[in-house]
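User: Can you predict the 3D structure for this chain?
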Amino acid sequence: MDLQTAEKHIYTGYIAGFVSAIITFLIILLSASGNDLGYHLDWWSLLDVFLMVGLSLGVREKSRVCAVLMLIFYLFSKGVMIVETGKLSGMGAGTFIWIYFFAQAIRGTFAYQDFYADAENEKEDDLPIIY
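Assistant: Here is the predicted structure, written as structure tokens:
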């Protein structure tokens, strides 16, 4: 993967994280206003929104840890939702699209960091040896 593709994947993962947080926030608002959507979200679910926004910002800064944690957190929250509702609610094709974007963000951050690690090693190899 070249640097430009890695940065594109990082950007799409960052945007996907923000969109996921916005959707969760809207569902929380609808649930809090009395609509029963079947998701069992309350105001404590805002912690999920803040965590996803924070991880997305980390992905924007090209953090490998944040990219991996964002995918793990997304899968964990889907698992919790399945356990709480007892059904595969919200597990449509959209779920696999989010997983794809988050996985690509992981690939992008690792490729980006590898590219700059290789560039640093090349710089060190070019330095003259002084005895």
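The chain has a mean pLDDT of 84. The longest helix spans residues 93-126.
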